[in-house]
Amino acid sequence: MDAMGDFLVQGLEQARRAVVDVVGRDNLQLNPKTMPRSRRARANGRLKQIETIVRRLILLMAFALKLGPLAASAPRAPQAEPDLPEGTQLAIFPRVPVKRFTLMPPARRVILSDQARDTFGAVLGLSGPVSTQPLIDRILALQKILKAPEAAAKRLARTLQRMQAKGEARPMVGPAAGAFRLSPELGAVATALPGFIRAGLESWESSG
């Protein structure tokens, strides 16, 4: 394994440990229904940092993949209706939504639904317990990606390939914000990632 491969393995392992730490701090493994709003906000903040690191690690993995040319998308054939006895109908059950981890999030500012704002746009601090389900859903989605990062890297590599084919601007990567709040090992990974990614994107325009 080369130096970059070792860096990726260690980075993903540190991310897994950080997720376990987020779960353990608030005993989320016990699946509580509610938790204090302030504690959920702190957990969401820590989880957001880990998500950013994981996205960047998977982006580095995607850079190393060699993909074939994009295949032309074939038109989707209409789905055949099943043969049912006369007078019967096919029962359709609603699908349960599953939280998915976004590998390439859109560049926009998201306001949480439980944030209230005053007349001048300032966020008001609300009190009282809040549901843990959104937080747990995010953790489960992140853990799913960490179990199979190679598959996620391949999907992201295809996304990057399509972006280049369309002549889109290359992804932008900023510095590691708040790395001092992480463990020393994960903080070192977070700090090194922007430089590695910028180096991997240097040939973006010429290889599109």
Automatic annotation (TrEMBL):
<protein>
    <submittedName>
        <fullName>Uncharacterized protein</fullName>
    </submittedName>
</protein>
